[in-house]
Predict the 3D structure of the following.
Amino acid sequence: MRPLLGQVAPRSDDDVLRDFASHESSQQAATPAMLYSDLLSEVHGQLARRWGAAADPAAGARFGASIGDWPAFPDTVEALRYLKQHFRLVVLSNVDRASFQGTNARLGVVFDAIYTAQDIGSYKPDTRNFVYLLDRLAEHGVGKAQVLHVAQSLFHDHAPANVLGIRSAWIDRRAETDGLGATAAPPSDVRYDERFVGLGVLAAAHRVWKAGIAGLS
């Protein structure tokens, strides 16, 4: 977003993320079959107009195509490698297949399955995405009781997981801030079963638990 922000009046990062979240979620609801890269391009133009700049289709296209360049969080790769030794890892993503290929290359693990909004035809928090996930897992002998949905977004992930009775762990990466980041506000009654401030902390907690079990045996 920085090139666009350089053309408009100064605003805080939290304000930028709040505006992005509002436009992104509205566009996802309005055009559930739109590829995420195209959707980001559309949102870029909407934000330009909202902030008083001229929409630039080329800049919007670059923004939409940038997903594969977004860096992983510092703790993610090591945590995923550890968790892969103990669990099946399945991705339920709001991006399209081509965009996730770039992300996947950065994450350093082979996922057991990857389900995208493009595959499903809708975006989280639509419960159809989670029904699709559960149906595919059931085909491989994995029941809902065996699933732990791990995610940052209370809006996109934990609220619909609540509706379908899926256990969840919140990765609260913004624990030291008041902002929600690039996500819309969740329902007031959203809940989760576990909370960690990073994926690495979740992996560390599992190491401790596993060591305790080994000590008991």
User: Anything to note?
Assistant: The two ends are 53 Å apart (CA to CA). The CA atoms of residues 4 and 48 lie 7 Å apart. The beta strands are 90-93, 113-116, 148-151, 167-171, 194-196.
